[in-house]
Structure formats: C-alpha cells, structure tokens
Amino acid sequence: MDPIALSVDDLTVAYHRKPVIWDVEFDIPQGKLVGIVGPNGAGKSTLLKAIMDLIPRASGRVEVFGKPYHQSLHRVGYVPQRESVDWDFPVDALDVVTMGLYRRVGWCLPIRKKHRDAAREALARVGIADLAHRQISQLSGGQQQRTFLARALVQDADLYLMDEPLAAVDAATEAAIVELLKQMQADGKTAVVIHHDLQSVPDYFDHVVLLNMRVVATGRTQDVFTNENLQKTYGGRLTLLDEATEAMRRRERGI
Amino acid sequence: MMGFDWNWQLDGWIVAAGMLCAVASSLLGCFLLLRRMSLLGDAISHAVLPGLAGAFLISGSRSSVWMFVGAVIVGVLTALLSDFIHHRGQVDEGASMGVVFTTLFASGLLMIVVAADRVDLDPGCVLYGAIEQTPLDKWEVPGLPFAVPRVVVVLSIVTLVNALFVGLFFKELKISTFDAALATASGFSANLIHYVLMTLVAITAVACFESVGNILVVAMLIVPPATAYLLTNRLRTMVILSCLIAAVSAWGGHVMAIVVPSWFGFRSTTTAGMMSVATGVAFMVAFLFAPQQGFLPRWVRQQWLRWTILADDVLTLLYRIEESAREVGGHPATAPGSAFAVTAAPLAQTVPWVAETLLTNRLAVKWAMRYLTWRGRVRPVSAKDGGADSGPAEGGGEARLPVLTEVGRREAETIVRSHRLWEQYLVTKVDVAEERLHAKADRLEHFTDREMQDQLDEQTDSPSIDPHGRPIPNPDQP
C-alpha cells in the first residue's frame, strides 16, 4: 500500500448554515493523479478550499502526509479557478509565476534574480516563455491557465490541489497541461484535480473521487468510474437530505 | 504668471502638509483600489469622526493622543462591522458599508454639535479641514534649527510609516491583493494584511483629517491611484506614479487656490478643495490622454486603423481592376506597369464608382488616393499613359483613377493573396457559406501578417486559385 498523501475524514462545510459538503471522507495515495468529479454545486471547489483551511469547516479532520494541514503547508500547492482572480491586475505573467515562490522567499525579503530565473524556467516548461513580460489581461484564456500552472510548478510542492485547470482552455493547452500533470506524477507528485469533462476522466486520471455533497465513490478509476456510480453522482440527488437541510435552514432563520 | 506673494514660511508649510497628506493617502489608496475597496477607505475616513468626537468629549483637548487612538479604533471597527454585517446579515457589501459609516459619521456629527457649546470644533472644519492654519501651530523639533508645524511633523511620521509598510511588505500586499487564497495558502495571512492595511487607512485618515478635512481625504485615497492605474500596467510603477500625481496635485492645488479665483476677481479660495480639484483634473487628463487606455489615443488608433484599411481597400480595388482588364479586355496581359489595363476595363471607373464599391464617400477615396500617391503606391495617369485607348467610357470629365506603381502592386498582391487564401481556408476548413465568404475574408485580410499567411498557405495546400476561380498571386514568385 502506498503512503497516504491526503486524508480527509468527516469533513462538513456549511455556507450560511446550509451544508455544502457533508461527511466527506477519502484517502488519496501518494503519486496518483486524482480527478474530483461531480455535478455543479456538488461542493468540489468548497472541498479544496476546506482542505486548505481557506473557509471554516463545521467539522472534520484533514491530514496531509500524515500531519495536520498547517504543519504540511509548504508541501501543498494550489491552483485556483481562473475566474477567481482579477486579470486586469497590473502585473505581468512573470510576476504571477514568481508569486509561487513568495513562501520560500519569506516575509519582507525582495525577489532576487534566482527567483526570477526559476519563474522563467517554469514559464518555459509550460511553453509560454516568450510571454513573460506581457500584462496578464493580454493573455488568452489558455495562456492564463498555463501561467497559473507555471506558478504551481515553481511552488515545488508534493501535493497539488487544482480547481478546474482544464476548464475553457483550447485543445493544445489541454494536451500540454495533461502532459505536464503526467510529468509531475512521474516525479512522484500527487495531484488532485477538479475535472468537468467525464469523457476524458479515464484517460487522464488513475484515481477518482465522485462527489455530490458527499463522496459517492472513491478509488481506482477502473474500479469506481462505472455507469452505476456516475448515475448515483449525477442522477440521484440526495433529495431527502436536501429537503432536511433546507427545512433545518428555514427553521433556524425563523421563516 | 506667478503674480502672487509666495511666502515660504506660510505657503511652504501648507504645501508640505498637503503633499504629505496626499502621498500618505495614495500609497494605501493603490491597494484599496486594486482590492475594489476604495469605498471602504471612504467609509473609514468618515467613520473616525465619532472616535474623534468621543475622545474629544472625554479629554476636552484637541491634540491629545487619546483622540488619535479613539479615532483609529473606531476606524478599524468600521471595517470589522461592515464585514460582519455583510457576512452574517447577508447584506450586500456596499450597503453594509453604507449602513455602518453613515451611522457612525452622523452620530459623530451629533456628538460634535453637543460638544460645540463647550469646546471649539465645528462641523465645517471637520468636513473641509483647515490646512491654511497649518503654519500657526508649531513645534520645536530636536535637531532642527527651525520650528516645524505640528501637522507637518505628524503627517511626516504617518507618511514614513505608510511608505515603510508598502516598501517592506510590497510583495505580501501584491500577492494578498491579487490572490488572497494563494497568499493564505503560502503562509501570508490575507486577513492579517487586510486588517493592518485598514488600521493604517484609519491612522492616515485621522492624521489627514485636520489638514484636508474628512471628505477630501477620500479624494487623495481614490483619485491619484485611479489616475495611475490608467497610466501603467505595472504595480510598482502605479504606486510611484500615484504618489507623484498626488504630490503634484497638492502643490498645484495650493497655487491654483491662490491664482485661479483672482482671474475672476475673487480672493483666494480653500486650498484643500483646490487640491482635490487638481487630482480630479489629473484624472481627466489621464482619462483622455493615457497612451494605452486613454480615450483620445484609443480614438486616434481606431481612426488610423479605419484609414489604413480604406487605403488598403482602394489599393486592392485598383489591383482587381487591373487584373480583370487583363482578362476581359481581350488584350494579352502586357508587362506590369502598363496603364491601358485600367482604361480598358468594362465600367466607368471613376472616384464615385470606387466610393460606391467600398461603401464610403468620395472625399475619403480621394484622400486615400492622395495618401497612396504620397507613399508611392500609386501614381496619377498622365496623358501618354492613356494613349489611344482612352475612350468615352472615362465619363463626364471625372478624374481618372491612378495606376499602381511597382511597389504598390507588390503590396496589393500581398493583401489580395491574404484575401484569397482566407477564402480558400474558410471554404475548406471552416465551411463558411459561399455568399458570406468575401465579407469575412475582407475583414481578415487586413490583420494577416506574413507568418499567418504562410500558415494559411500550408494548411490549404498552397492553392493557386481561390474558391471563385481567380488566381492567388504570390509576390515572391513573379
């Protein structure tokens, strides 16, 4: 059995008292490419954010490489959704990539040449070295996503959490990113990737988590990614549970 | 021009106070703007009032440390409260800010009115400040040979603190402003940075409140950063530029306050007000003339693009006339450069006809031809060019169309080549309907560079004729 990279236990998150994910539980072995799959509103982004303590949890325990998250902070890299940032921000692509190194640079200290060189190298790895000094709003969607990926690369983490890196990118970028993910896997990294395109799941990921508020199934793709499980994830909303939480919410708000 | 009394002892200190206040505010304002929180700066700078008034009522003195502390506490409370109302009460962010700061500001005003019987602090002074009184209240600063106004000392310290904060934590401010999630995940707590920034905004607002007044701090927090944002797309440059703009506006504002009213026969007006007007003017100038995003440069670029496209269209039309004349005219295609091809074409090809074909007016076509002539792309037809072939088809004394020069022909061939390659590409790869083909290609041909042309050529298997059966010229292969 491989060592466990990420272990989530009994994780529940609520927005405005309405549970978004509920009793989520899974283990992810090290060195795997993991796809998180589920319908809209299934709580995929919420799950990643809750793992990283970016939003408060109602309950639950997260362990990264056998330690609580805040002790393994430096081993986790995050690629947020592309829409989550303001692309009119006055920085160029190189600046964005360098941000991945800030943790290693530390408080107050300035960016030095070796950091910029590392950032350039990462941009070259994702194939946009020539765009280093372009303002980020002038990059295409695919190039913006590549910039984010380059930033993740320079973080040199062991566990990557990626929020839809393949959403709305051109075919060439998708192929390049997948190639890069496979390379990272070959280097012993673990990547947990939210993915929306069911068709390509078996090609890209060797491990999946099927999520719809709670974990419907998790395990090796060939075992778990079955029609039956997909039906459970996408078709059968947990209507009773939904109704119960809705009733709970109404009662608490006194409506 | 400088026909007024400039007294360094008075005006110098006023300008110094204004500049310090402007720089201190705009340093922080840049980050407020980028966080889309400019209004929070506004809210905080207003909401410090009850803190000031409360401390004032308790201590009864205007320069006490307590007053400062009280104001800062209430200022930070504004940020916390509006955050709380926004998240817990599910009220819109702007609305929750509005609720908090108007309530606090109003209660501050009430407290001042109550206090006004006992001490000297009036609402007008709160709103507009009293920068003109800066030089009156001086402190002896150890190590300096002259006395320095108290306001200038305080503002210097605040400016220094803000500059140190932005300088030392530039990287942290940048990452937490751009991507708060990554900042927090990287160990730079976005929340911590947020509240330190808010505290400094509150401190700055309180310190500036005395000199430029409560409302006008807002101008310095928002307008210079907004101006700088129009002028650059690098954060560092933006911060430096906004400080410069703020400082120059402060200085210019004071000069304007003295000079401008005298043009209309009035005495000088309030400096703080004029400083804000000066930042507004700076913003307008940037809005109109900023090289990249400015209104006028954008307009000029658009017009220039339209103009070059028209010139290209005229050029290619001349080329097409020449081409069809070669085929229809029955004459064997003679050496390039002979003009008879144009005159032998079937229609009366005059300027009005060109204008109609290109859906524009005659004047534009005439000017485009003049422009092409000036660039050596075409030349006017001289008598000997026309020769025996010129017949009645020339029509009603209208000036005859110019002919292509060698350079012009090559350029036209390049554009026509792009056009026909695009048509070929659109038919074979994109399946565009026949009748829409020409219009689409007509647009694309103007934005096709050499590299793209080569790619088109490659992807359409280097055709020699386009979908309409016309040859695709290649200037490189005569």
TrEMBL record, chain A:
Transmembrane segments: none annotated. Residues 6-238 form the ABC transporter domain. The keyword Methyltransferase does not apply. InterPro entries: AAA+_ATPase, ABC_transporter-like_ATP-bd, Metal_Ion_Import_ABC, P-loop_NTPase. Gene3D superfamilies: P-loop containing nucleotide triphosphate hydrolases. It holds the Pfam family ABC_tran. It comes from the Bacteria. Keywords: ATP-binding, Nucleotide-binding, Transport. The keyword DNA damage does not apply. One of its GO terms (molecular function) is ATP binding. Belongs to the ABC transporter superfamily. This is ABC transporter ATP-binding protein. The lineage of its organism: Bacteria, Pseudomonadati, Planctomycetota, Planctomycetia, Pirellulales.
TrEMBL record, chain B:
Residues 405-474 form the Iron dependent repressor metal binding and dimerisation domain. Residues 444-478 are annotated as: Disordered. SMART domains: HTH_DTXR. It comes from the Bacteria. Keywords: Cell membrane, Membrane, Transmembrane, Transmembrane helix, Transport. Its main location: membrane. Residues 444-453 have a biased composition (Basic and acidic residues). It is found in: Cell membrane. SUPFAM superfamilies: ABC transporter involved in vitamin B12 uptake, BtuC (SSF81345), Iron-dependent repressor protein, dimerization domain (SSF47979). It is a multi-pass membrane protein. The chain crosses the membrane at residues 12-34, 39-59, 65-85, 97-116, 147-170, 182-206, 212-231, 238-260, 272-291. Belongs to the ABC-3 integral membrane protein family. This is Metal ABC transporter permease. It comes from Aporhodopirellula aestuarii.
